[in-house]
Every structure is written in structure tokens, then in C-alpha cells.
Design brief:
Blueprint (H helix, E strand, L loop, with lengths): L7 E7 L6 H12 L3 H7 L6 E6 L1 H13 L3 E3 L3 H5 L4 E10 L2 E6 L5 E4 L3 E16 L3 H9 L12 H13 L11 E15 L4 E5 L16 H15 L4 E3 L26 H18 L12
Parallel strand pairs: 4-9, 7-10
Antiparallel strand pairs: 1-2, 1-3, 4-5, 5-6, 7-8, 8-9
Helix pairs in contact: 1-2, 1-3
Length: 298
């Protein structure tokens, strides 16, 4: 069943000062009509964190209760996050007066005014991929062209052959015809740039030349992405820079985020969720009247 776009993520920014985890659990349990032990588990999230996903009325009660006790929280929905639109991937950009002239991979040239940039999210995403290789048995046959003569693997008959095979090819368990899988970690450096109008631009180091850095361009995607992040923070000193994605635990519903073009671009939905979610949190912290998830209350 597709998750409701209007359920709310109860997102705690700060618990009331001087309170304990048990206090937090009681606040949530009372507001949500839930049991204490479940809420105590959820209250252990690193902040800011999502402590629950609930129908709008229940989520608003929880957010109000946290605020009433002196903490802070918001309750955005998937629809609120999706309202920020698709990720606009940047092909290239250059400094141009009071902003950047931006060339998008899909879309017309545009401008990013320094004054409009309010949140920058820096992340290094890791993906482990398993790569199948040829069967060790088939590899050996391919090299030898035939099965070895009886004495070639030692004098222990089939057991000797299996032992020698395992020793040479590292096969443990399974059949001799099973293919091995080798895993490799692919690292991707991302930089999301949020603007006040609500759009999300992204620099993917795999698809960006970093010519905007000029002589500051160095070796490696990580170095260049960090250097570009520093450049943007320098020209937009009012913007918040968030490098904390690796410390965050995504809610299970993050993968249900529906963004146009996300499948075509093979977008990491956990990062897309985090980037948009944190942008809403930072905007609320800067201006409490910005209140996603609460604005439609009666």
C-alpha cells in the first residue's frame, strides 16, 4: 500500500531542556495515545530526528506537546518534501556578478543569486555493489582445457581434489559451479543547493567539471566538492552548511519520496529526503512562522 502523502513525520529538533528520555517518551505517548516503551525507543533518535510517522491530527498533537514543554519540532509530510520539486542537476556553472550562471543537464540556462541560497547540504554517498565473476571451476577448466589427471590434485581422490580446489580458489561451501561475487564500494560526492524560492539544485561530482574553481581545482572529487562547498559558503555567508548526512538514520518511508525524474537519474531517495527535510528544519529554525505540517491546522 502506497504511504499517504499527508501523514506527518514528527521531527524533533530539540527536546525540552532538563528532561530525560523517559520524559520524552511520556510526552509522545500522551500526545499520540501510544505505549510508553515504543515511544521510549523512538525518543532515542539522534537529533534532529524522525520519531514517528502519523496521521496529520496525531502528528500535530505531538509537535504541539513538544513545543508546549519547551522543545521544538515540526511535522512535514511527504507532500511537503515533494513540493520542493525535482532535483535540478547542474552540468556546469560560473561566477557571474552577484550569482552563478548555471547550465543544467535537463533544462534551460538559469541563475543562482547568492542572496537566494539558504541551505547547502554536503554528502558523500557510498554504495556497495556485488560483481559476479566466472565460476572458479569454469575458470580452471578454461585455463587447463581439461580436467587434471588423477594424480594432479594429490592422491586423495575426490576429497583431495576438493581440498586442493578450495585451497587454490578460496571456495568455501556451495557447489564447485557456484560463481563468486566480489563487492566494490562506489563513492559519490553530492552537494545540494537550496534556494529561498524552494528549488533544489545539485552538483554531482561524477557529472561536473569543477571549472568554476579555476586554479583552486585539485585532484579528486572529494577535494573539489569540498572546495566548491567552501566557495558557495563564502559568496553566500548567510547560508547554512549541513555535512551531517552520514550521522542520520532514515525513516523507512523515505524511499517513498516521489520526485519527477528520480528513477531516470537513479537518485538516492534517502539523501533526497534528508536534504529536503533538513532544509525545512533550518528554515523553521530561522523563522518559526515557517511551520510545515502545522500551517493547515484549525
Amino acid at each position: 500500500m502506497r504511504p499517504s502523502r499527508q501523514h506527518r513525520f514528527v521531527s524533533v529538533i530539540a527536546w525540552p531542556r532538563g528532561t530525560t528520555r523517559d520524559d520524552h517518551a511520556l510526552i509522545l505517548a500522551d500526545a499520540l495515545g501510544s505505549d510508553f516503551e515504543t515511544q521510549r525507543l523512538r525518543a532515542g533518535q539522534t537529533l534532529p530526528g524522525v520519531v514517528g510517522w502519523h496521521p496529520a491530527d496525531a502528528a500535530r498533537r505531538a509537535v504541539k506537546a513538544i513545543r508546549r514543554h519547551g522543545g521544538d519540532a515540526i511535522g512535514p509530510s511527504l507532500a511537503d518534501l515533494e513540493a520542493l520539486g525535482q532535483t535540478l542537476k547542474i552540468r556546469d556553472m560560473r561566477l557571474d556578478g552577484d550569482g552563478f550562471a548555471v547550465d543544467l543537464w535537463r533544462g534551460p540556462m538559469t541563475r543562482l543569486h547568492f542572496a537566494d541560497i539558504d541551505v547547502i547540504v554536503r554528502a558523500q554517498l557510498s554504495e556497495r555493489k556485488a560483481t559476479p565473476t566466472a565460476s572458479p571451476m569454469l575458470e580452471s577448466l578454461g585455463r587447463m582445457g581439461h580436467m587434471p589427471a588423477g594424480g594432479a590434485w594429490g592422491g586423495l581422490g575426490s576429497y583431495g581434489m576438493a581440498a586442493a580446489f578450495a585451497a587454490e580458489y578460496g571456495v568455501v561451501g556451495g557447489s564447485a559451479g557456484s560463481a563468486r561475487r566480489e563487492s566494490a564500494v562506489r563513492v559519490s560526492n553530492k552537494l545540494d543547493i537550496h534556494v529561498r524560492q524552494g528549488m533544489v539544485f545539485q552538483i554531482d561530482a561524477d557529472k561536473f567539471a569543477f571549472g568554476v574553481l579555476g586554479d583552486s581545482r585539485g585532484q579528486g572529487d572529494k577535494f573539489n566538492t569540498d572546495a566548491l562547498c567552501e566557495l558557495i559558503a563564502h559568496v553566500a555567508p548567510h547560508a547554512v552548511v549541513d555535512p551531517f548526512y552520514s550521522l542520520w538514520k532514515p525513516p523507512s518511508q523515505a524511499g517513498s519520496l516521489a520526485l519527477r525524474g528520480s528513477r531516470l537519474e537513479r537518485e538516492d531517495l534517502n539523501f533526497a529526503f534528508y536534504s529536503r527535510w533538513m532544509a525545512l528544519i533550518y528554515r523553521h529554525m530561522a523563522d518559526p512562522s515557517f511551520d510545515p505540517g502545522m500551517r493547515d491546522q484549525s
